[in-house]
Amino acid sequence: xxQLIESGGGLVQAGGSLRLSCAASGFAFHIYRMxxxxxxxxxxxxxxxxxxxxxxxxxxxxxxxxxxISRDNDRSTVYLQMNSLKPEDTAVYSCARQxxxxxxYGYWGRGTQVTVSS
Length: 118
Fold this sequence. Notes:
11 strands
């Protein structure tokens, strides 16, 4: 079955970096658009970045220049490199797979906690 397993979260000081990974299995990873979302306490979930099967990317405007999404199709993994982290980046980060016919995100990982201390 489809599985998405995130890793790489943790506690980091403001200004630091983290790289999140999302290991996918159970489907043909290389043909799907993948995305990272985040949800901070008391806030709505927001789309952080997505990457197409061809490697084209798009980002939440406010994160451009600090976050980078990438993928390794040989490893069926999507990454999120986060630099110059700020306390407001604190959230649970989840990866998701976008479905072909609905464009909805049909499969989600459980998420990984990122906490940025000031």
